[in-house]
Amino acid sequence: MLSYRVNLMFRLQKIVSKAMIEKWLSKNKAAIVDHEGKSDIWKLFGAVEREEKVISNFVACKACKKVYAFKPIDGTQSLRKHNWSAGNSGPV
Ligand SMILES: [Zn+2]
Question: How close is the Cα of 53 to the center of ligand 1, in Å?
């Protein structure tokens, strides 16, 4: 049974795309929740949760809901390049 569940989760992960998550967020079918971690970047970005499950390998800006592909091993460099001055309410 366990292997069946892991298999299913793997398949679900593969079909999730950034565009889908942005669509879910815009329709309130997904929510941005606090991400674990010590970095102050997690005050600005959060994990994305849909149907009470956190979607792995993606994070979203709490201010403008832009979605980024994110793996912990890649670090937060790409998130720090996020454009806060594009008219949204994010910190500079
Ligand atoms: Zn933003």
Answer: 22
The whole model's pTM is what? Answer: 0.74
In the reported structure, the alpha carbon of residue 55 is separated from the centroid of ligand 1 by a whole-number distance in angstroms of 19
pLDDT tens for each residue of 68-80: 999 888 889 889 9
Where are the chain's structural domains? 19-80
Distance from Cα 12 to the centre of ligand 1, integer Å: 26
Map 25-82 to HEC letters: HHCCCCEEEECCCCCHHHHCEEEEEECCEEEEEEEEECCCCCEEECCHHHCCHHHHCC
